[in-house]
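Table S2 (continued). Query chain:
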Amino acid sequence: MNARYFAAAFALICSLNGAPAAASTVSIRDDSGTDLTLAQPARRIVSLAPHLTELLFAAGAGSKVVGVVSYSDFPEAAKSLPHVGSYNNVDLEALIALKPDLVVAWKSGNRDAHLDRLAALGVPVYINEPRNLDDVARALESLGTLAGTDTIARAAAEQYRTRLQDLRTRYSGLSPVRTFYQVWDRPLMTINGEHLIGDVMRLCGGENVFAALPQLAPTVSVEAVLAANPEAIVASGMGDERPEWLDQWRRWPSLAAVARNNLFFIPPTLIQRHTPRILDGAARLCEQLDNARQRAAVQLK
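Corresponding output:
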């Protein structure tokens, strides 16, 4: 009789306060507009892009990451995690073997076929697709919600927003600098105005000479760059060293960027990844474009 009484009392309490499992349910809308619900915060997360690995660690969820893709090299702890292929060639068998309760994916980087297959297998997938600097803070908060590390994630997002506002205050209203951002040399690639790097350029007063192109990362010709006559050329390349091909523009001494010695380099990990470190890259770019302004002013005197 007592056992039945206590069972009924417990059921009544759960009906009033919500069952323990329901109280931990996580619901969120991802960047593709899809609503995702987890029965509880994720405990085994696989990241399908280097920037997502970095974001998860920044959001306090590093200990819950059980698998990553190649080039997930920041922070240091990420280097020792199991790999499941690359962002554009995911090893689904290796991924499933890790038994994730959440996969965090990159819309414009991962293959739709891979993401569709995961969905068909019933693996929860959160899609990330940052297009501006404010999206980085929002991504931190979303990943913190999914992993149950909200407090750390909110603090990281707030720190990021404060630094971003400081940069905006410092560089807003300055004269524009026509800028060509070079991703690679063969093929000659750049970014348009919708790309996250395009937003970094706007933050610094850079006027992207190829902002109007429809592709996020279009291929352009040397002739098109010469016709645009940028005042600054900024390259990234593949590593931490200045790419040799950046100085090939010196073959055209009449190009404004060459004439004023405005051939700049920023390591790709600081400007091509959608993480808090992009503000390190932004600070460098802002300083570089400010140097370009000063050189233009000297030339006009």
